[in-house]
Task: inverse folding
């Protein structure tokens, strides 16, 4: 027996025996504490009954109930989010619907006992507190995502569009409040408080949802996309400042008392901006990586965040404002922000924010909108909210010189409300400003306005971008490289450069990288983009060529590749191989979906890493692959290539390629390790590749890298 095993059994056995002996000896001590033991459960099956009773008791324990609630909420949110993503909607739509589904409006209507069990009234405060903590962390991230430096160049135009739109919406909100105040305002709420709150509720824009839509559509790296985000940033800052003032008025009871609250708030803001902000900037210059970022520094940042939220809560303008402002004053050092965003975002958005949506859904009683008048009010509020944003932002943008297309896009994106609207509504509900009925109406407004953003943008694209026909006399040969791992990008660039090398003025090469998620923030997206294109930019410099980079985040990878290829009028699409989950074919999965829909030539690279392409083998299996002669014609213009052709078709036009770099290879020696392994790259038609996989077992074991081409 192994010495260590023997030692293990001896030592553990000795101490186990001693433990049993001392426990047995201690039984005599029970007599001094307990005179008589009265059995709680019947003697028959007492052990089993005791076990069942303990399980039942544990099941009703507050902690166990909270954990069960979290499981149900997160699972439901993910399910609904999955389905709404399938129809091109932002994830927040699914989370809002999931919250409403779990509440009295749907699940409670059909299964009231289940809702009463899962979300008993006495358990809701725990969910509310956790969700509020999630919002504090989330608002800190939103504050960090605001890049105040962009306001310097585009701040005036953004300020004009944002404030004119807010003014119009605020006016419409106050007008509609005048007519619905008596029936829909909370009890003992003054008209001016209700009207001011309705104004901010209708004029808010969801910066995080807007930013993610801009990312998904690939606009974030354009001047127009940067301008939209700037407008949203100005809108967010303005809206939160107005909200802070409205909360101060609501809590103080009158405008005069609110002046003191606003005054103290300005002092707080000044201390944070001119006192705390410089200290944070110095910290960011010292601690620039995870390696030298100690736990003490992390603790200091979290203390600053929580204390800022605490101060604003004590002042009377809500903790969320303090969290938001703490994020705003964070230094612009991107690495410093990335570290804290990474630490906070997943916990906030995946674990805690769904609790907020569920809590909102439990408050939302759509059944209260049970009269024709209530539905009329709901419809009017939605129409005014949509038209106010669309007209205000669009016409202001057009007045400043933007095109009608861009103006309408700004108006549509500013109409997105999402999570930010729900935060505002919950604040109003907690303060008693909004009645349950108007709260439900405003939740529906938030849901519908966010839902219509995507389809409206698609409509604008359709109206202002009619399908462009491919020109037969294009002046450039467009190449698109789509890659996942960064190292694959540089390899594909090497292949593309070698095979389509012509006059650099006549060839345009673009590189596309997609992040398969729409749940990432601006800071995280910038980090992913930098890392993705780092290798390919180095390779482009070494080859002395220009490569345009395209970064998007999308869950529909294949569809986005096809869309980008067709939008850029690509002549050749280069991709890395991808195996299907259910089939071993390297042209399966995403590749198969791209091949079925894209309308240009496709090259799929499979095999080993390529350092330098000098020897190329071109295999032509039949007359269907004679189109490869076009590729050979281009390859001939690269004097560094030594090309051999294996012609199975016996119809290849060698007369057109009388070049010393091209020779015909006897096909009888093709499927041979000693022959094939001499080449750096083998080029084959996709049909040949699929036939070889089916008939020549083991042939791919000794192949070098292979470019599988589809006409």
Result:
């Amino acid at each position: 027996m192994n010495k260590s095993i023997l030692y293990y059994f001896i030592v553990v056995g000795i101490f186990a025996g001693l433990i049993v002996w001392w426990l047995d000896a201690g039984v005599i001590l029970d007599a001094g504490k307990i005179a008589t033991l009265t059995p709680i459960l019947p003697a028959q099956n007492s052990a089993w009954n005791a076990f069942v009773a303990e399980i039942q008791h544990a099941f009703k324990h507050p902690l166990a109930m909270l954990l069960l609630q979290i499981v149900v909420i997160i699972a439901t949110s993910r399910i609904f989010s999955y389905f709404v993503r399938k129809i091109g909607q932002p994830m927040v739509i699914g989370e809002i619907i999931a919250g409403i589904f779990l509440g009295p409006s749907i699940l409670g209507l059909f299964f009231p006992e289940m809702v009463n069990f899962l979300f008993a009234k006495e358990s809701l405060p725990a969910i509310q507190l956790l969700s509020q903590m999630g919002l504090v962390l989330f608002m800190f991230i939103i504050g960090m995502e605001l890049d105040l430096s962009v306001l310097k160049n585009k701040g005036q135009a953004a300020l004009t569009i944002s404030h004119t739109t807010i003014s119009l919406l605020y006016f419409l909100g106050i007008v509609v409040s005048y007519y619905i105040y008596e029936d829909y305002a909370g009890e003992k709420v003054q008209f001016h408080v209700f009207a001011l709150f309705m104004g901010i509720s209708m004029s808010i824009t969801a910066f995080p949802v807007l930013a993610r839509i801009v990312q998904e559509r690939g606009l974030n790296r354009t001047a127009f996309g940067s301008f939209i985000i700037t407008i949203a940033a100005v809108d967010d800052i303005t809206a939160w400042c107005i909200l802070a003032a409205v909360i101060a008025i609501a809590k103080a009871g009158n405008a005069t008392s609110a002046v003191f609250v606003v005054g103290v708030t300005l002092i707080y803001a000044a201390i944070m901006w001119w006192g705390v902000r410089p200290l944070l900037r110095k910290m960011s210059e010292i601690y620039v990586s995870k390696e030298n970022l100690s736990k003490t520094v992390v603790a200091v940042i979290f203390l600053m965040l929580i204390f800022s939220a605490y101060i604003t809560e004590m002042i009377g303008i809500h903790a969320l404002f303090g969290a938001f402002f703490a994020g705003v004053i964070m230094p612009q050092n991107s690495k410093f922000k990335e570290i804290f965003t990474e630490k906070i975002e997943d916990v906030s958005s995946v674990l805690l924010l769904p609790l907020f949506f569920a809590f909102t859904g439990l408050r939302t009683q759509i059944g209260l909108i049970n009269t024709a008048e209530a539905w009329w009010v709901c419809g009017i509020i939605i129409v005014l909210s949509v038209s106010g944003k669309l007209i205000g932002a669009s016409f202001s943008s057009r007045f400043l010189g933007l095109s009608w297309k861009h103006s309408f896009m700004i108006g549509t994106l500013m109409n997105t409300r999402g999570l930010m609207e729900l935060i505002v509504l919950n604040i109003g509900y907690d303060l008693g400003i909004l009645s349950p009925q108007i709260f439900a109406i405003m939740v529906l407004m938030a849901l519908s306005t966010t839902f219509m953003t995507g389809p409206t943008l698609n409509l604008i694209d359709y109206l202002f971008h009619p399908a462009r026909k491919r020109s037969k006399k294009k002046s450039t040969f467009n190449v698109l490289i789509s890659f996942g791992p960064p190292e694959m990008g540089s390899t594909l660039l090497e292949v593309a450069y070698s095979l389509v090398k012509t006059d650099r003025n006549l060839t345009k090469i673009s590189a596309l990288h997609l992040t398969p998620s729409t749940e990432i923030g601006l800071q995280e997206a910038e980090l992913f983009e930098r890392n993705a294109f780092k290798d390919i930019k180095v390779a482009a410099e070494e080859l002395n060529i220009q490569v345009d980079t395209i970064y998007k985040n999308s869950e529909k990878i294949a569809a986005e590749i096809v869309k980008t290829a067709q939008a850029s009028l690509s002549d050749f699409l280069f991709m890395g191989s991808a195996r299907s989950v259910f089939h071993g074919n390297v042209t399966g999965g995403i590749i198969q979906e791209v091949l079925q829909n894209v309308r240009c030539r496709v090259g799929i690279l499979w095999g080993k890493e390529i350092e330098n392409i000098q020897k190329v083998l071109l295999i032509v299996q039949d007359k269907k692959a004679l189109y490869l002669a076009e590729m050979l014609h281009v390859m001939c213009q690269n004097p560094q290539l030594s090309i051999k052709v294996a012609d199975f078709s016996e119809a290849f036009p060698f007369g057109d390629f009388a070049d010393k770099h091209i020779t015909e290879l006897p096909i009888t020696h093709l499927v041979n390790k000693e022959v094939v392994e001499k080449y750096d790259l083998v080029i084959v038609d996709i049909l040949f590749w699929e036939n070889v996989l089916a008939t020549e077992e083991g042939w791919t074991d000794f192949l070098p890298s292979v470019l599988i081409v589809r006409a």
